[in-house]
Amino acid sequence: MHTTLIRSALFVPATRPERIPKALDSGADAVIVDLEDAVAEDFKVQARANLQACLEANPEARVLVRVNAPQHQQQADDLALCARYPGVVAVLLPKAESAAQVELAASCGKPVWPLIESAKGLQTLPEIARARQVERLSFGALDLGLDLGLMSGTAAAQRMLDQARYAILLHSTLARLAPPLDSVFPDIKNPEGMTRMAEDARDMGFGGLLCIHPSQVALIHAAFMPGPEELDWARRVLDAVATGGGVYVVDGQMVDAPVIGHARHVLNRAGVTSA
After folding, report:
1. Distances (CA, A) of 223 to 54, 63, 72, 270, 273
2. Distance between CA atoms of residues 36 and 45, nearest Å
3. What is the tens place of the pLDDT at every residue in 172-195?
4. Does pTM surpass 0.85?
5. Phi/psi at 51 (nearest 5 deg)?
6. Which of 11, 59, 129, 135 could form a Cys-Cys staple with 175, CB 3.0–4.6 A?
7. d(CA 213, CA 13)
């Protein structure tokens, strides 16, 4: 299983190349340069040229690239660019709906993060999760909601989308992938809502979230960072295990394998390597 800590993955449009260095300096765990949804059809070629110029001017930069969707006429050129530059560390594949599409994206030699955002993508999720070069799954709730005809923003729609989240988590675990990333929170002027969504994603088992504005990065990281008491508990659990013996009790609770696993997970969320 891949263990790289990714709590935030920040989109930046390739039509705004001056924003790419700013995104890289935002503190986000990953930066996704977007050649797809954020780029109008007439600007696809220019967007790719912008990304190429940025990679050549900043060879130390490391980015993901959201290429155009399968069957889009520009995807082959997007993948060819990704193959040429070591600064592209992974491909975000939008509207992923089959293992064959993932295999094609992987032909550029980079890990693939399929974006599940359609009914068909959800249906074929088991095969997508097991496709070659898949590193982690990600979720596009807005597009999936549109495809399913959900009433955006309602509690009923949220219940349906949470079932999709469960499926993404389930198949990430079965395929031993890195923890998946939840969908974007579109209201950049609502930090309270962003925080609630990040906390929900954390509690559901997601590794982090996709995001669309640098101001969201710190909110996501704060939501995923364990509090001092939780970190202290996790350290004391693992310290007790390290002393040896067969039965451990911490704060009146018997420490068994699931408790030890949870303690390690807490430290991993904090970026602390545990034994």
Report:
1. 32, 24, 37, 11, 19
2. 11
3. 999 999 999 999 999 999 999 999
4. yes
5. -65, -45
6. 129
7. 11
